[in-house]
Structure formats: C-alpha cells, structure tokens
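Hey, resending since the last one bounced:
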Amino acid sequence: MRYPDDQKQQTHDRIVKAAARRFRRKGETNVGIADLMQELKLTHGGFYKHFNSKQDLFIESIDRAFEEGAQRLEQVIRRAQPGEELRSIITAYLSPEHCSKTGEGCPVAALASDIGRQPRAVRAQFDRAVQNYAQRFVRFLPGSTDREKRLNFGILFSGMSGTLSMARAVSDDEMRKRILDGAREFYLRSFCSK
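The structure tokens again:
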C-alpha cells in the first residue's frame, strides 16, 4: 500500500523531532535507532526510508534542536519590555526550568562534548547551526560594530552553555542553584548594565 507524500514527510519530521530530544537527553552514542523507532511505533527497517545512517539523522536533529531553542528564546523576547530583551534571554537561559529540561533545552549545553568527537560533517553542521543562531540574537548584544556584537555573543553563549552543562552535571541541588544564580548575576551585570 502506498502512502501519501505528506505522510512520509510527517513521519520524517516525527523521527527528527524525537531524535533531537533523545540526543540532547542521552547523547549521540546512547541513542539506538531500534529503540527510537520502537518509541515512535515504527519499524527499524522503516528508518532507512528516511535516512541513510544515524549520522544523517544526527545532523538533521542538530538543526531541529537549534530551531526549537531559537523559538523558545523568540517567545522570551516577545514577552520582554523593549530594551530588556537580552536581560530576559539570560534570565530564561540560566533558569532552573531550562536546566531541568535537557531533552528540550539548548543543544550546545547538551551536545558540545559529543560534537567535538564527531566526524567533520557533523561538526560543520553544528558550526552552521551556531552561526544561524547567532544571527538571530546578535542584535541584542552590546557592541558598536557587528564584529563586537558577534564576539560578545560567542563569549556570552559559550559561557552560559558551559554554566548550564555544569549545573546539570552536579547532583547537589543547592550547588546547582548557586551555579545558575551566580552566572546569571554575572552575565546580567556584565552584558546588561546601562
């Protein structure tokens, strides 16, 4: 039986969405295709109608994860008072809620250590995703030139994602809170002072 083309695309999208969350939650090496497809109530063999390999799925899921993260930050920006967008981004990014949602959160905080060990094609896709992400948010960063704003984005974003990674790694709830609160205060003071 032949299925409509849009159903194939919908299935493809479901696989990518589920994989993007699972990769962020478990890391690339701890995600099995058979388990992922079973979770979606699809056949393992059906995976290969959509992707040539797990690496192809991982590359596509990187884009999905960054897009989901950007959409969440765009919502934060829309709710912010004019001129307070960066303050709102920092506050939301370094929140306990974001920290607790590994599978739905920032792909850099969740996957950076995995990406560094991936083949060049995966790392190149990650580079493009970070650059696209920066393009969306660099306008909120301080700096008198585009170059300065991009440098500030790199400093802030890498620092916040490292903070989030460390906060997720510790088991002590009070330590996690101190890490998030201290970093949030530092970045707000450093990047949002008027």
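The two ends are 64 Å apart (CA to CA).

Sorry for the duplicate.
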